[in-house]
Amino acid sequence: MAMELQPPDGRKRVKVYELRDNDWFDRGTGFCTGQVLDEIPRIFVESEDEPNRVLLETKILKDDGYQKQQGFCPTASAQLVSPTMKYVLTDLYHAIRDLDCMDGAERHGYGAELPRGRRMRGDLVRRFALPTLLRGPRNWATSPEIEQIVRAASMTQPGRDALSKFIIRDEYIGKLVPLVTMAEDLESLIDLHRLCNIMKSLILLNDNTIIETVVADQIILGVVGALEYDPEFPALKANHRQYLADQSRYKEVVPIRDPLIRRKIRSTWRLQYLKDVVLARILDDPTFSVLNSLIFFNQMEIVNHIQANAPFLRELFSVFDPRNADAKRKDDAVQFLHQCAAIAKNLQAPSRAQLFANFISHGLFAVIAFAVKHPNPAMRTTGIDILVALLDHDPVMMRGYMLKAVNEKKTPLTDTLIDLLHAETDLGVKNQLADAIKILLDPQIPLQDPLGRAGPDYFKLRSSNLLSDAFVQQHFDESSKRIFQPLKQLADRESLDDLTFQEVTLYAHLVDILTFFVRQHLFRTRNSIQSESLAPRVAQLLTAPQKHLKLVALKFFRTLISLQDTFYQALMTRNNTFGLILDIVLETMPRDNLLNSACLELFEFIKRENIKPFILHVVEKYREKLEQITYVDTFQSLCIRFEQLQGYEAEADSTLFSQEEASSARRIPLNGQRWQGVKGLDADEERYFEAGDDDDEDEWTTQDDRGSLAVGTPNGSSPLMVKPLVDYPDDDDDEDTMDTTKPDDVANHAQSEPLSVADVEEEAGSNPPSPAQTPPAPERLAEKRRRDDEDEDELVKLAAGPKRRSSTSSNSSAGILNRKKNLSIGSTGSEKSAGNLSGIASAAPKRIAINLGPAKTATTEADKSCTEVSTDGNEKENRDDSQGDEDG
Amino acid sequence: MSDLDRAIEQLRACRLIPESQVRELCYKARELLIEEGNVVSVDAPVTICGDIHGQFHDLMELFRVGGDVPDTNYLFMGDFVDRGFYSLESFLLLLCLKVRYPDRMTLIRGNHESRQITTVYGFYDECIRKYGSANVWRYCCEVFDYLALGAIVLGASSELEPTTSSANDTTQSTMPIDDTELETEVLNSRGEVTMSTYRPRQRSSSDASTDSRNISPPRDISAAPGQLGAPTRSGAPGTGAGGDSNGSAPGSRTGAVLCVHGGLSPLIDSVDKIRLIDRKQEVPHEGAMCDLLWSDPDEIEGWGLSPRGAGFLFGGDIVKQFNHLNGLSLVARAHQLVMEGYKEMFDGGIVTVWSAPNYCYRCGNVAAILELGEDTSSGGTVARSNGEYGRSNGVMGADSLSTVVSPGRRYRVFEAAAQDTRGMPAKKPVADYFL
Predict the structure, then answer these.
(1) I want to staple A582 with a disulfide (CB 3.0 to 4.6 A). Which of A332, A609, A625, A786 is the partner?
(2) Is A156 left (phi over 0), alpha (psi -120 to 50) or beta?
(3) B130 has pLDDT over 50
(4) What secondary structure letter does DSSP report for A623?
(5) What angle do CA A672, A673, A676 make, to 5 degrees?
(6) How many angstroms from the chain centroid is the CA of residue B233?
(7) In chain A, which among 817-836 make CB contacts under 8 A with chain B?
């Protein structure tokens, strides 16, 4: 052990504090030495005023001593305490110098292990430095000590606390600030780098008060000034001061007079700059969240101030008075509102609601109307952004306003938007418009989240919706007519080869919106699809030369298929839709590309879900085409399925109807409507069966979402593989093949075929299929009837509290509906999520999702929506159980 | 100089291109990507890169170390955006290069190429910040939906040309006849070899005359349906003596290399199943497409829960089986930070490649890229499937599966770009403010 620990420049001046009852008492200033007496390292502090008085004498004890200290003395950075007297030097000017020693002590203190050998050198004794930093700029040599002290102190929580306390009490940052310019005057880069490090460390202490101090008017420039000299980039200097000093960046449309709020605005801006620019690289998570919460609270106060400030709002909205000629000011005011809306997004719902309500009552809609018609695309974007913020906030409210306008025979917002969508040339704006229209014209959202709106509010809303339902439908039909007009006009078009770029984009958006509508509320859309005969138009787009347009159209049909709804199935089987899709397959066939994969996925889905009407239709009508496609086995499998179905029907015809019904229900669980045809059940029974159905619903939506892969093929048979000898069937295969393809069926098959074919044709061509024919038909008819009923009374059903079950356990066809609705809540809730797609994906359970349940706690990067998956996973588990029973 | 070249120049200087150009670029890219399969076929030689995460200057360092486009054929395995401060510049540059040199640049999708993730992890904010509206973000997300889900590298050489300490180009010098061949090599950013491993030479190069190694043979598996589950190999293991007498060279047929961002999926047992995904969608929260982008290998058996909340963990047995079944010798993936830049697992059955040095500007890791050489022994021509069907060499001649050897792998390790070659990385501040 070293004997002499005096630093070369003599003793260090220190301040000694004693801890009594959790308070620090100043015992005076003195000079500190470390000595080793009797093999025991000790610290002495002799008083400055009375050289003979010893302020502190303490042994540096080994493990025992330090571990005890830990308990007594939470402020550990400069702790120096004996078990009997607890002293701490928190004063930075008088602080510990020897990091190495500190480090060892800290480890020791936490009882982790004894200091390693090298740490046990004599300098275990702390030496206190008195950096004479403030005595004059020349004495820079001491600066590294501060840097070290600060850094060392930030290593441990107690150290950070102590340091923060000191920094705040002593207004230390204020004292550092002038040093920046001094160092700059001296062109002392080393010192500037040190100052930068110190400043960083102080900010990263993560103390609210410190950070608030940092952004104060008189301090901020000094702080960022120091931070301009980042030692990690020695050759560079940032220009934070220049940026922050630029007063012109702050724009005022209408002056805010409250000085407190003005200050908040300034400091919020600075905080954001610190967060995004100055500290972006070095921010740790805690500091990041401290910054964010400071910003949040500031913004909250600012917004509250604004919305409560009626004169201000009046003045603000009067800017848009048509008599006002100042266009620039109007633009600025739009920007201002946009920023308010953007900030409001982060606020809690009540204050956001209040803000928007106030804005609206002062005439926000007029502003939006002004902005969306602005000649400058950027302003249009801004205007729609405001609108989207409103929609995200409360679509019900927005629709309410819209319908009110219709009621009052004013031009509703939707019409304006639709016209804009048709005319808009800026693709970005067009995109936004399409999104906004989707939300506005989605009349089922209000029904979706009664739970979220529990309370009197909910009933109010519901009743208003009940009243307006027919009206909503009417409006929806009219709007649809309007919006899909260009699509309808496609009928007059002979060739799609000369589509302009703008047209292509427009059609893509329209089909996308239509797909959304169909998925989102399949009943309301029926009318317009039927009356405007939109499906053939979309089918027409399958022949467009633009591949992405084909894809959009394909997506539409893929959505129709997944709905498994008779009406849409009928649509699909007309217009040569499948022929066109097969043409795409044939066209792209040798190549492996996106379009080809999308088509394959569609047929795979039909095959996997065993959607009989489609299998019958496709094979019957396009057998030749199918047979040309041999590079994947999907199409052969379809043909095989077809054969099986034929055989099955022969059997079905010969059996009793009731029996057939029951067995078909078991065989096609994926259709999910097996009980729909059975009438006369009492309520309880019905509910029970409906719940069961719902599980099946889950099954098929799930499979839809799983992409293209049949989970039910654990044996690893690939659909792509040619299976010449052994055909490993997948699950649903089992149900059919095992049950139906008995040898004599196969024998019957040939003769029964023609008859069935005729049936199929009929079913495909006309809407109401005759119940006695193909097995799915009776169910579907009943189901259709039922759905029609539901369409009207679903509001009532949803409203009936006790009867209402969670959306997932309600009856099947409404089950789809409910689920969709929930989904759209999810997707509209997060503005940018991929609308229905992501929504669908997030809510649909899958077999393997069971496992995801426990995993969510440890979620690292996955976003929150994954939690939805896990809840569904449980249902899925149940479902699997029940299915197991069935199978058994 | 075309607009595109100008845009590339501008982006290389880390300056953004105007919104209208971004839009145009994205449309062009879309046209291109729509023609790609879900699994793109790429011929060796190729340089495989992992996550970039908006670290533009490090991307430039990557190009410096790995060679410039189009001289080097690149394959980027996703996660171009988020986290770093230059997601836009990085992604747009890569996209420009893709459009300019479609055959020399392959981009596949990572889990961060998604609307939901980018709104949380920075790309969305960056777009708003740099362009003032979300339009550019929308264009980019549209492109994300078109990105391929994986790539398969064909015709990689089993043996590396030894690197002399300075050169990084593979000259035609022949390795002295020896009974070992260079399997892996690690180079630092100055091109100096820091580590090499050798393995016993297979008897391949000896009879090049009969070398008809079929990297991508026609699919004729229908002739032998039983092969799939249980290979009926007639030769003794290890001898490479398959029962067939077609004269194919026994020995080192280099298997294909599958590249995906995340890893395997329990729903995907063959590469061809990936083909059946309609990939044009937001990355789902589950299902095959999700797993390919989210899963991680782990030291477990079988499948496990992923702590990420999406995708799965999969063990060595899964990798082994998958590789065997598909005739792959290696799965290359990214998705996980590895401090050394690359990490081989499961006897070299899978490798993680990470190309964002000092991740998030603070992780202190190095980055790596993986070079696979071209197999020149078959005259430099490889039956390239090029999107044609028939890529499933996985099930072809199970008798030769036993001799599938992993390709020679050259890792170039590099550190974060030197401080003075870049500005201080920082986000762009908002210009004006009202509140």
Answers:
(1) A625
(2) beta
(3) yes
(4) H
(5) 155
(6) 31
(7) 830, 832-834
